Amino acid sequence: MKLKAKTKLFPYYKYKELECGTDEAGRGCLAGPVTAAAVILPQDFYIEELNDSKQLSEKTRMQLKPLIEEKSVAFSFCHIEPAEIDQINILNASIKAMHISIASLSISPKFIIVDGNRFKPYENISHETIVKGDSKYLSIAAASVLAKTYRDKYMETIHEEYPMYNWKQNKGYPTKEHREAIAKYGLTKYHRLSFKQLPEQLKIDFGL
Q1: Which residues have C-beta within 8 Å of that of residue 148, sequence separation ≥ 6?
Q2: Positive or negative CA dihedral for 169, 176, 53, 37?
């Protein structure tokens, strides 16, 4: 049973189920982890501003993060590092991060809703994949905010180690500035070697 949301987002997918929403951040980045979060919200949860994290400003995401954590029944997040992304591919890494996040919840959900159209069953818990679910269901939106904010914090931390890539600003995404830095300085241990780091016309000169 589905109910109409107080806002444009639905409060849950299944009525009176202990439902978990999960989402990832950083799937298309050239550097850094892919990060997933899982969130179980109370069925009376309501924050008017909550939406898909990509539709929110950084300031709003940071304001929502502690509210989500305070009001949630349970939440968790997980980073999968570049070396493992290279080994198992980004789709499998994203799903693994979601699985670990769900497994790390303090309460086991009875149903899982997933942003997107790809997922692998987690244990014996039923699930539903929802395209653009982070703009339709509150728990997926909450997971998207947590995944994004925890990943952004991670990228700001490793920026201090390699400031020339400006990860505190681009968060590892394939911006022109990021790719120019790769062409100039090469790759780091935080770059995903299985990704196409540079356009064909640019070459990395390692000085060999």
Answers
A1: 25, 35, 53, 54, 61
A2: negative
Per DSSP, helices labelled H in 1-137 are 58-71, 82-88, 90-103
pLDDT tens figures, 121-155: 999 999 999 999 999 999 999 999 999 999 999 99
pTM of the model: 0.91
pLDDT score, position 41:
96
Q: How far apart are CA 54 and CA 28, in angstroms?
A: 13
d(CA 168, CA 22) in angstroms, rounded, equals 25
Percent of the chain with pLDDT over 70: 92
Query: Distance of CA 53 to CAs 116, 145, 152, 205, Å?
Result: 14, 5, 12, 37
pLDDT tens readout for residues 107-125: 999 999 999 999 999 999 9
Category of 136 on φ-ψ map: left (φ > 0), alpha (ψ -120 to 50) or beta: alpha
What is the rounded CA–CA span in Å between residue 163 and residue 175? 15
User: Helix 58-71 vs helix 138-159: angle between axes, to the nearest 10 degrees?
Assistant: 120
Is residue 69 within 8 Å of 106, Cβ to Cβ? Answer: no
